[in-house]
Amino acid sequence: MTETKENEIKPQVVQLISAGLQNGFELPNANLVVITETEMFKQVQKKRVRQQTLANAERIKSYTDLKPGDYVVHVNHGIGQFTGIQTLEVDGVKQDI
Q1: pTM summary value
Q2: Every domain of the chain and the residues it spans
Q3: Rounded mean pLDDT of 20-49?
């Protein structure tokens, strides 16, 4: 197997070429078969995580700025209504929830 540039393809030789193809294809009349890395190794491409932007959003500087009944938007949990903060002790550790 030979690594080849796109413009230097040789006949009758299995070759590796770096290219951005979604799927392979076959051209029987040209005796050409193209197989992508994903098809060959059955790997699924991981989706890129989109970075979230906070346009028109205001971050809370302190939880003391919130009043019960205020609506809030959490990056991971979505829209909710603030009901207050309670301090609980779990396994000897005090935590605000």
Answers
A1: 0.39
A2: 2-41, 63-96
A3: 82
